[in-house]
């Protein structure tokens, strides 16, 4: 049974870079799109971006060029870096799997809370 | 981006009730809509895709309908396990967007 688990610091200082990792267990990373999604307090879910097993990436234009997503197939992990964070980036961050031809998310992690504060 | 609006934001109901949650899109998304169930501390769970396709293992008391801009998630005969937050997501546009969520709580 494939499972996803997010990990990373729960506190990041303003203007610094948020770094999170998602570990995929019980299955391969090939043939899927691996995404990051977040939910700020009191708000809805927001798609951040994805990486395909080939290395192709895309991200939500609202985050401009602050997003970087990478994939380490040898470790079955993918990672998110979000630069120049502000308090508005405080959220629960989820990793999720999207199938190739379907643009919804069939598998999610439990999420990890990240707070941006000095 | 396509805006998704769910209603109500909070819904109080009792075990055995039938409830309906609505999701409206700011423009037509055909049937490119998914529904998720989310419980605190757990991973969100995909319930329905393409507006009405029930995922494997999802109880048949869950159903989805709609197309274009208006969609509904219906839960027949609510069970204790169904109290959770429900999210809709459009995937007509590559910038996938979600509703703000509907919290289904025990009355």
Quick rundown:
The complex is a heterodimer of chains A (118) and B (107). Chain A is mainly β and 118 residues long.
What does this structure look like?
- The complex is a heterodimer of chains A (about 120) and B (about 110).
- Chain A is mostly beta strands and about 120 residues long.
- Chain A is about 0% helix and about 55% strand.
- In chain A, strands 2, 4, 5, 6, 9, 10 and 11 form a 7-stranded mixed sheet that branches. Chain A has a 4-stranded antiparallel sheet with strand order 1-3-8-7, with no helix packed on it.
- In chain A, a hairpin with a 5-residue loop joins strand 9 (about 90-100) and strand 10 (about 105-110).
- In chain B, about 0% of the residues lie in helices and about 50% in strands.
- In chain B, the strands form 2 sheets. In chain B, strands 2, 4, 5, 6, 9, 10 and 11 form a 7-stranded mixed sheet that branches. A 4-stranded antiparallel sheet of chain B has the order 1-3-8-7, with no helix packed on it.
- In chain B, about 35% of the residues are buried.
- The interface of A and B includes residues 43, 44, 45, 94 and 104 of A.
Keywords:
heterodimer, A: 118 residues, mainly beta, seven-stranded mixed sheet, four-stranded antiparallel sheet, 0% helix, 53% strand, B: 107 residues, 11 strands
